[in-house]
């Protein structure tokens, strides 16, 4: 396994100079854009990594998975999906159009920005801090790391450049999707996006999801298996923004990408896979990450289709 | 297996009176709307059916899978996907909007109407008849039935009410997606939609796809395994129109529905599943079919996520 | 003239019970919905009114004309129209779609909500209070009334229900249309919408616009004639939301309506016309007001087309 | 008057090399792109021209005015406006989106392509030839020229490249806006677009419209004054595609442009104005024509606002 991980790194490294880091969140561009790490964790709990797989980066949109799990645990399936749909969109991740034109005015799914904000409104907590504590609790559990924290500078950078997300949130509040204080809600969302993770941690999170919510190391049930299936099926149809279909075809596993450069992959009943490399393609996905995922998919026959 | 198929039929029959047959194609509404059949075919080639699983109905949108396989065989992956994308849409199956507003003016995927028409333009044949012969050849092979034919009345009914598809086709020709004669191209498409199938045949087709293109009965390779993966991954992300995400969550297998009342399901490496019942929900999917698929998914743990 | 105004009132009163007051701003619905006033002011400065033409109501969207005049005076034509277009939209007055899909991300014109907010960002003033003072100054001048004030309760009601406008504002700030503090900017906008006016005052404002910016009573030039033409031509093409075309055809004069129930009409080189009646049709225009305008247009041959 | 027409020509000639001829209809690009003519006709019936004002060109979209007048005469106001709206759009002239998303599925107004096609379906005539004879009759009357004909090559060129218009027509027929044979209907439309006119003729047509339908030369009533007002008010709000607002502001008269390079202007109760120059701006309007219109508007104070 280690050999193939190493080969995947070697193969995908050819694309290392291509693409560009996300620049709409200024703090993000301070990261070394040549970082590239791959990590897989099997259901025995063994982890194989290569490259910068222990380097910290901000989780960004991968946090949408953690937010969804937290919301499902706090408010239940029916309540969460009264505020958000479960369908792919074909639009950009930050699109606002369907909040005006949709049959329902709910966002289409929990993995686009509008949907993740609506999901955040379903998390328990009397105020912004307490809600975020809930998210952090889930993150600590699922990342198997008691020391999970967020990057204050990235958080502040997201907050100061987050007008598009404010537009989404106010649009939803005007339609009655939720009635929360928008700035407090977005603080939870922006802090969640700024959570620091490593490729190794994300691969372990993938392994828990691949193992129906049971931690491979401890055998403890960490997430309700039904919630795992909810999360994995949504990742499969809309986890990579408007490149989800191509990813299904070329790689074929439930996955979620983030503009921080990370990708979380789940191979049900087999393993968790994670990549990290900050340079992105036009759709916001890590270029080396995608190439590594393709290599691993072929080498291990990971596609579930 | 037979027992569970029977139970699934019993369970889903409770919804038998709900919904309505498609009425925009007048001929379709002549079908007995109380028909309900279920059929599964395992990889040993054994078929288990219950109810009206040998009743003939028109394949409708399930033909998009056959059209795509034929086009891939005739023109290759690169050519086909230069004319159509591979992303879900979030729109109705007959939507025209993205042909005007999309970044690319190609339709978003081969399983919506516009995409299937673009795919049809990639099928070999000097004229309409010869192109349709190619489709029928694929259908005969993949349905394991040398006598496959189409329903002339349904074809004429589709042709006479097919203005929306004409609009889609002329819109694409005006953008240079293809340059075929539109009426001839649509004749191929409408005839393909009118192909007569049974639930049993569709479940066998599902088994071939589940078996990486190899016929379970004969062991012969009928479809290139890569094309099988293309088809299955696309069915998984956009096979049930704008209910694909919910189907992924509740059933969790690649599938394709048609307004004739059929659903084709593929459980990779395990079995083909088919249901048939003409009454549809608001999104155009067979109500009893969906309920039966849910039951079977739970009973057999079919979900791939 | 008085006779025809009286007849117009009588004629249009037949529709008095139809339609409904705006209810999305709770305070607005406290107004007596049976009020109905008509007033015209000719270029000699004489005013003819009938019904509740001296009753106070909130100006609502008619303030967009005052905001535009103020912004043109403060920032000039080029700057204002670098932030907003000059084209009709065909969309609802509060639509957000084109801020995402437009070729330019500027709002299409100054008379829809997004456009009026962008225009407000072009008004001078170090803070919210000072900017609003500028608006109030213009209003006092153009309404020929030193005591113009706003309704604090309506303002607070608009502010507390103004999430759709917040969405529009943050969407524009995220695209760089302006960089103002959104809450402060909206305070100016909401206060401007809450300015109290009477039908008589609005008809005098119409007369000034009809008179190329010169006050009929005093002979003083109050508005640059070029700005008058900008305002009148825009009112002609998009002053009545998505009913502007029908109003051009049936009435044929530049006009601006507000959900407070008022309509401002300008007959270039002839007179100002104003109506007030709170019950609105589905597009947000005063039903009796429209009927009165039609009557007056025919009686006086007002149409400029 | 002649002097100012000459000056307008001189002034606007500075922009003579800018822009490009329409190229989507191949035949159109055969025209000498340096042609530039201006013509005005006052209500005494006197015509003042300069440059290539007697050069023939194809009327293109200006025919929408003639189609609308013919349809109003044949089917009446209510019937015509049951098939088409009267509102500006903010979209491109050939947009199809609102035929799917609009509240009503009728096209928004008679001066965009979809609307003009719907209007054509309201013209009397048992077949394509007879319908077109009706159009030609109106054209002969309103252009004051018994020899009006159309350019067969341009017609064939439009027909062979008219797929976008076919898409619009089939889309409307699928929604029940009309039920005509699409190819026959489009033949009428394409032939109407190919009618040959001169600047002088179009200015005389403008004078008739400016004179409430009465021919200045003969004193005969040629068009119902109510239909004249319908046409002029619609030209005012949406006659120049998505540049109608800017034209209202800068020129301020009802007008209609065509991609053949012509512009028809109507100054109610004063004169008809016409320009012709084939090079167009990005929105499809003649560049020299617009400049000449602006010059004449200022020189003669033509703006009605």
Keywords:
two-stranded antiparallel sheet, Beta-lactamase, alpha+beta, 2 domains, 305 residues, 5-stranded antiparallel beta sheet, 46% helix, homotetramer
Can you give a write-up of this model?
4 copies of one chain form a homotetramer. Chain A has 305 residues and is an alpha+beta fold. The first copy, chain A, has 2 domains: 164 residues, DD-peptidase/beta-lactamase superfamily (Beta-lactamase, 3-Layer(aba) Sandwich), CATH 3.40.710.10; 131 residues, DD-peptidase/beta-lactamase superfamily (Beta-lactamase), CATH 3.40.710.10. Chain A is 46% helix and 10% strand. The first copy, chain A, has 12 helices and 7 strands. In chain A, the strands form 2 sheets. The first copy, chain A, has a 5-stranded antiparallel beta sheet with strand order 2-1-7-6-5. In chain A, strands 3-4 form a two-stranded antiparallel sheet. In chain A, a hairpin with a 4-residue loop joins strand 5 and strand 6. In chain A, helix 2 crosses helix 4, helix 5 runs parallel beside helix 8 and helix 6 crosses helix 8. The radius of gyration of chain A is 18 Å and the shape is globular. The two termini of chain A are 22 Å apart. Chains A and B meet through helix 10 and helix 11 of A and helix 10 and helix 11 of B.
């Amino acid at each position: 396994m280690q050999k193939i991980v190493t080969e995947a790194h070697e193969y995908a490294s050819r694309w290392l100079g291509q693409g560009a880091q996300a620049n709409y969140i200024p703090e993000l561009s301070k990261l070394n854009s040549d970082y590239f790490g791959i990590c897989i964790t099997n259901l025995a709990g063994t982890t194989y990594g290569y490259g910068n797989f222990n380097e910290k980066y901000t989780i960004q949109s991968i946090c949408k998975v953690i937010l969804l799990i937290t919301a499902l645990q706090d408010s239940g399936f029916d309540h969460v999906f009264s505020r958000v749909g479960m369908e792919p969109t074909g639009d950009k991740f930050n699109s606002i159009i369907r909040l005006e034109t949709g049959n329902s005015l709910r966002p289409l799914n929990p993995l686009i920005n509008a949907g993740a904000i609506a999901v955040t409104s379903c998390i328990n907590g009397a105020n912004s801090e307490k809600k975020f504590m809930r998210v952090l609790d889930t993150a600590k559990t699922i990342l198997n790391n008691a020391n999970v924290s967020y990057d204050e500078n990235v958080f502040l950078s997201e907050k100061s450049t987050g007008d598009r997300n404010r537009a989404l949130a106010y649009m939803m509040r005007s339609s009655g999707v939720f009635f929360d204080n928008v700035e407090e809600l977005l603080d939870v969302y922006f802090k969640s996006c700024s959570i620091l993770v490593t490729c190794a941690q994300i691969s372990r999170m993938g392994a828990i999801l691949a193992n129906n919510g049971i931690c491979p190391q401890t055998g403890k049930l960490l997430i309700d298996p039904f919630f795992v299936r909810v999360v994995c099926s949504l990742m499969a149809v809309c986890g990579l923004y408007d490149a989800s279909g191509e990813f299904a075809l070329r790689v074929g596993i439930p996955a979620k990408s983030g503009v921080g450069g990370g990708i979380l992959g789940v191979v049900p009943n087999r393993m968790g896979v994670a990549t990290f490399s900050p340079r992105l393609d036009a759709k916001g996905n890590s270029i080396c990450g995608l190439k590594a995922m393709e290599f691993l998919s072929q080498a291990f026959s990971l596609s579930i289709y």
